[in-house]
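name: query_chain
kind: protein
chains: 1
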Amino acid sequence: MDTVNTDAVDIATLMQDMGTAAQEAARVLANATTEQKNSALRTMATEMRANAASIIAANEIDLTNGRERGLSSSMLDRLALDEGRIDGIAGGLEAIADLPDPVGAEMARWDRPNGLDIARVRMPLGVIGIIYESRPNVTADTGALCLKAGNAAILRGGTEAVNSNHAILACLHKGLEDAGLPLDCIALVPTQDRAAVGEMLRMAEKIDVIVPRGGRSLVERVQNEARVPVFAHLEGICHTYVHAGADLAMAREVIANAKMRRTSICGATETLLVDRAVAAEYLPAIADDLIGLGCELRGDDTARAIDSRLTAATEEDWSTEYLEAILSVRIVDDMQGAMDHINQYGSGHTESIITDDEEAAATFLGKVGSAIVMHNASTQFGDGGEFGMGAEIGISTGKMHARGPVGVEQLTTFKYVVRGKGHTRP
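structure:
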């Protein structure tokens, strides 16, 4: 759908028209061949690389505007694109093309004693609405994942990335056009009026699922107002727990990566939990690494008694997604104490235990109920691309069928296909 003059068209009409166009496109896409979809995705990747300079130029406008508006360093990092990141986005498009097509795949099949043949078969959800903030890569990632799963996508990006999003969308539309698919398979809401979000949340007759990607205020608004099913992507309040059986060298390496590799992503560790049995020995060495990398450490009284370089943590710190070079540190009595802390303050995103004790690891992995649980690995692996999904539409922290990284399979539903031979029910 082309950009329109929203002064001449009211927002409700605009969004209804977009919904109708998306439904029509979804019906076409649901019957598109795997070859068509993959061809579109590969052309999109080629276009992304070929137009990197123009995408970066558009992104620089957004970055300049963002700096003038006082966006935080983490928001600017999420917003920023360079050749490396654009190549990564293109690589994700190609990886999605290489994935098996979920549409039409049999999940299970069985015969009944009466001779009926029953199969559970994947099918598209239909139209997916994605509401997101500063990360322009979401435009490509979500559009491509929806396409591969046979869904039309209505994208509502944030004001801070408007120029970047349109530059990326042009590449996606070229892929659709070359593959003979409707451009409305991936549509970007052409207004930044917040009323468009409210309309999307009420469009249950046009949109089948809403996916919010952003801060707590956005997610809470979507959850409170939506009349459409929601795949909730809540905050990434991720924890790394150093168990008494941890190898110190491994713990130091994993924690430095989990916090500092990229602080602005939702998989970054925000709270470090250290077993009391090893805290006096381990914490100063771990703190040396993190402080040397420019990380501010905030600790409880016990942690501060061990290392005076930590400032005092407040109650609010335990439930804060910093997305900055800040880490809260708590000393816990044992694994139960660590799990109790996670249960109280965690957002259900990603938790990791560092230990050489396999039994302890199995207990942690089995009892912690977050969407992603890890053993001896950086929480920054909590990402659809790292899981082999090509990309992700988000990390769902709810408990619907789509949990953790939401990829092409999670963007399908299913139907039952029943085959008989003139069967009638007695």
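note: The radius of gyration is 23 Å.
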